Amino acid sequence: MIHLKKGFRAEENLRDYFNRAGYFVVRGVPFKYANFDITDIDLWLYGRASSVSREITIVDIKNKKTPQAIERIFWIKGLQAAVGADQAIVATTEGRKEVKDFGKKLDVLVLDRNFISRLNKNSEENLTRYSDEEFFEEISNYTYSKLNGDWKGRINRAKSLLTTGLTFDNANKWLSDSQFFAEQGLVTHMHSEIALRSFYLMLSYFALSVDYLLRDILFLEPEERRKAIVEGFQYGSSGKEGIENKISMSLSLVERFYEGGASISKQIKHKVDHEFESLEANLLGDYFSKSEVFRTLFYVAKELEEMSMSREFVHFSNSSVGVKSLIGCLFDYWGMSRNSLVQRSFDV
Description:
Helix content is 61%, strand content 12%. By secondary structure, the chain is of the alpha/beta class. Strands 1-2-3-4-5 form a five-stranded mixed β-sheet, sandwiched between helices.
């Protein structure tokens, strides 16, 4: 068990607090703009208030003698706007009433010294789950994790997508990351446990994004809902019409500026159409349009995240029906054997 520094321990304590309050919590989310690394969001929270209401909150934590709380309120308010969060929270060891008043004026919740003191006093070392530091140490124990797909970098990039929106484009990226780690869990025999933990984590982000996306189409007729899901996975956030417009524009340039452009354009169009048709998004549409599936996705996401960080590795076979059915559906989608994952889960 790693002994965490004071600031990191405060982040873990608050993570546990919000986790118990029912949120899906991600710690240390990188925020990038263009090619610039701007900052890390200490905690990113996702709450499911009702079947149609979702709430994203970002938390800035300063557990220092001179926390500069007023400046942090300014900072997080700008960060909230940049990442499109619904709410912002500053947790600080500052105790002045004026700080809470200023936060209220800017619609930023301030968790002050009294709250932090009570939280730290009542919190104990979490003996049931890894900290982020311990999770990444497990990855570092796999010597070839950097060469074999940059596992740490891939996970941090997956985290950073949370700041750009829970879109179909990002859902497809988390789906791809999930497949990568599922495959790694089957081939890296000495380190299959951390590969499967990473698989659970990526899958939790994917499930969360689908939960968010489905909130807007819950009340469509079943076939309309299924069609919207299929098109989202097949064509991304732009939708079928948007993608077709982009393709048409590109092909028109080929026809204008290349010799034999019409013939080349026709060949490209045929190949592109074939690629889209080969995506088995119908399977995903059938699965996620089921009411019993979309009602439980948030809780499936939370369970997967907990599985990824549990100190005692959780076998896939011991997960809930919801988690098992999601993994089974995706293994069918990827053309992978369900039995291979079950066997690997027992081997680690």
